[in-house]
């Protein structure tokens, strides 16, 4: 039990220490896996959160814009209905009973209008409601725009009849293109406000509507409606967003409400009402955060599993290494018989096998060294006796060689003088041959360059010819393009004529729809949209006609430029042919010069070859004499050295015998 505990503690120490191989493997692997999990989590979270936020912002924006469009469509529909009644009433002049009868029928057919007022003039002081009772609306703000002949919608207010939030839609009565009276109808916007209040974006997101000054038209807390403004919420971000909308800038914004960060978007209706849609950022990011937590949990589990696997692998690596270390310690102490069991075919097993092989080779080497040391001791004794005989023979050789050296010195002096003269002649001829070879090389290089120049000029002439053909084809293509532009211009004229005819037909359809009364109300709106589209088509056709004129002008300029380029290309081709003829003449002259230089160079080479042979022969003789003299001196010196060496060999053989004895003593210290 104690050994197991000690081994466990030793293992923990090894795995936790950066100085140990296993500890380094485990800690480095743990760091890499943790880093990979962190990087993967970050790479997933950041793009995903950004994409989710973009989609949520797009959803908020789309919801706000759709609500604003729905409010605009509702108000436009009510305006169109009143406009049709006003067109019918304009034909009644100042006949009060007929006006009131017309309004009474209209109100019965459309009960969503709370009250309809008829004013025979533009002052409004003598106006009448649809039931015939007189009313005074001269102090209303919308009277000013009605006097200008414009359709107007008042700011929302609370109706005195039913205590509901309404707006007043005022339509002028026209006679000969000038206003002389007006109809004014109060229309409840409670349903529109409820529609906005019913919008929910997720669990915490909602929408509300306000006027441009921030006065609430709808809000989750109904006590805020027409009594409080957006600034009463105390959010600088909301106030800034409302100010940006007033300046014509719509964008996403964030604000904090009760400690919760929210994201919103403001859409604007044509009546200058602002619809705000918002949602909690925490709700938007909740799916991504939940998925991130799951990834971190899975990553943590993977780290733990990888760590356990890594520990097992590290232990399987470390234990064989520690056995190898122990074996190396025993080897250092002189035990050449220790072997380590090796299993498997991995790198560590190969290292253990290599240790065993090294131990066996060292053991065998030391056994052989032991045998050799004994043989060296015997050879040293024999070498001492042979050294004495060699010293006597060396003395006789030294005396005979001294006589030969004196004769070799005289012969060497005469040969050196002849060698110097022949070397001087050979050097001068070498210079002549060198200059001739240089001139020949330059002539060959000039001939090659002239060949390249002639070939380049031929290629240039071909390219100039191809360029002329290409420019001719370009001119033909540009002419075709000009004709096509004229045809497109004719088509654009036809489109413009169709747009003008469509505009006239849409005006006639609007007139017929107004005559049809209530049954033609929807058709009148469609006819108005067709007239707008016809106007846009006429404007686009005029722009296209302008573009085509510009294209035709630039096409003519390009055609003239291509014709000039064709002429210049033809002139360039003629100049290239003339230059090619000049290069051919230069090449012929250079080849003649090169042939003459080659003849001179060949003659110089033959002279150099003969002189070099003579100099080489003299040098060989001189070198042989020098070598003979030097060798005789060397032999004499070697004989003397041999005599001294023999004496040293005799003393060294004795030392070698002593060293062999010491070597045998050292080898006996190993366990073989």
Defining traits:
672 residues; 9 helices; Beta-Lactamase; alpha+beta; elongated; Helix Hairpins
Topology:
Blueprint: H1 2-16, H2 21-90, H3 96-109, E1 113-119, E2 127-129, E3 134-135, H4 143-147, E4 152-153, E5 157-158, E6 165-175, E7 178-188, H5 190-197, E8 200-201, E9 205-211, E10 216-218, H6 236-246, E11 252-257, E12 260-268, E13 273-280, H7 281-332, H8 347-515, H9 521-667
Antiparallel strand pairs: 1-2, 1-7, 2-3, 4-6, 5-6, 6-7, 8-9, 9-10, 9-13, 11-12, 12-13
Helix pairs in contact: 1-2, 2-7, 7-8, 8-9
Task: Write a compact overview of the structure shown.
The protein has 672 residues and is α+β, with helices and mostly antiparallel strands. The chain is 73% helix and 11% strand.
């Amino acid at each position: 039990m104690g050994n197991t505990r000690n081994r466990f503690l030793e293992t923990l120490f090894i795995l936790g220490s950066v100085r140990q191989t296993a500890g380094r493997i485990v800690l480095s692997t743990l760091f890499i896996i943790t880093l990979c999990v962190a990087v993967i989590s970050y790479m997933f979270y950041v793009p995903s959160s950004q994409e989710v936020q973009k989609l949520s912002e797009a959803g908020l924006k789309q919801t706000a814009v759709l609500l604003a469009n729905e409010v605009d469509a509702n108000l436009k529909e009510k305006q169109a209905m009143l406009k049709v009644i006003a067109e019918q009433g304009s034909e009644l002049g100042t006949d009060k009973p007929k006006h009131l009868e017309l309004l009474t029928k209209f109100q019965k057919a459309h009960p969503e209008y709370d009250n309809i007022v008829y004013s025979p003039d533009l002052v409004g002081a003598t106006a009448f409601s649809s039931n015939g009772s007189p009313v005074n609306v001269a102090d209303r703000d919308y009277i000013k725009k009605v006097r200008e002949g414009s359709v107007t919608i008042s700011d929302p207010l609370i109706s005195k009849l039913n205590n509901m939030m309404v707006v007043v839609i005022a339509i002028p009565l026209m006679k000969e293109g000038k206003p002389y009276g007006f109809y004014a109808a109060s229309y409840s916007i409670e349903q529109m406000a409820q529609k906005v209040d019913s919008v929910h974006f997720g669990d915490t997101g909602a929408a509300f509507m306000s006027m441009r000054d921030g006065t609430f038209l709808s809000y989750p807390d109904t006590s805020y409606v027409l009594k409080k403004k957006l600034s009463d919420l105390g959010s600088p971000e909301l106030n800034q967003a409302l100010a940006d909308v007033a300046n014509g800038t719509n964008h996403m914004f964030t604000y904090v409400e009760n400690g919760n960060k929210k994201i919103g978007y403001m859409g604007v209706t044509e009546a200058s009402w602002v619809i705000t849609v918002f949602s909690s950022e925490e709700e938007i990011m909740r799916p991504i955060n939940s998925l991130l937590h799951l990834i971190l949990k899975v990553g943590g589990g993977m780290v733990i599993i990888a760590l356990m696997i890594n520990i097992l692998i590290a232990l399987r690596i470390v234990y064989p290494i520690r056995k190898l270390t122990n074996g190396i310690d025993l080897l250092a102490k002189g035990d050449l018989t220790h072997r380590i069991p090796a299993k498997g075919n991995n790198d560590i097993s190969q290292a253990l096998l290599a240790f065993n092989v090294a131990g066996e080779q060292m053991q065998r080497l030391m056994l052989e060294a032991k045998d050799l040391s004994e043989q060296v001791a015997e050879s040293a004794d024999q070498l001492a006796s042979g050294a004495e005989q060699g010293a006597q023979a060396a003395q006789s050789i030294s005396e005979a060689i001294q006589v030969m050296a004196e004769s070799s010195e005289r012969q060497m002096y005469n040969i050196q003088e002849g060698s110097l003269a022949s070397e001087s002649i050979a050097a001068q001829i070498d210079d002549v041959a060198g200059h001739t070879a240089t001139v020949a090389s330059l002539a060959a290089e000039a001939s090659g360059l002239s060949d390249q120049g002639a070939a380049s000029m031929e290629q240039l002439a071909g390219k100039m010819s191809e360029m002329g053909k290409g420019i001719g084809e370009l001119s033909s293509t540009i002419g075709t393009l000009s004709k096509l532009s004229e045809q497109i211009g004719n088509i654009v004229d036809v489109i413009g004529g169709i747009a003008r005819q469509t505009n006239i037909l849409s005006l006639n359809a609007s007139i017929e729809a107004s005559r049809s009364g209530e049954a033609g109300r929807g058709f009148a709106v469609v006819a108005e949209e067709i007239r707008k589209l016809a106007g846009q088509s006429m404007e686009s056709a005029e722009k296209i006609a302008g573009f085509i004129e510009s294209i035709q002008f630039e096409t003519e300029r390009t055609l003239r430029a291509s014709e000039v380029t064709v002429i210049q290309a033809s002139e360039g081709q003629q100049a290239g042919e003339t230059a090619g003829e000049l290069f051919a003449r230069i090449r012929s002259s250079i080849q003649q010069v090169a042939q003459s230089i080659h003849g001179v160079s060949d003659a110089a080479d033959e002279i150099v070859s003969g002189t070099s042979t003579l100099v080489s022969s003299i040098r060989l003789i001189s070198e042989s004499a020098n070598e003979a003299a030097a060798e005789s001196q060397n032999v004499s010196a070697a004989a003397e050295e041999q005599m001294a060496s023999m004496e040293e060999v005799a003393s060294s053989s004795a030392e070698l015998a002593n060293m062999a004895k010491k070597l045998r003593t050292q080898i006996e210290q190993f366990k073989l």
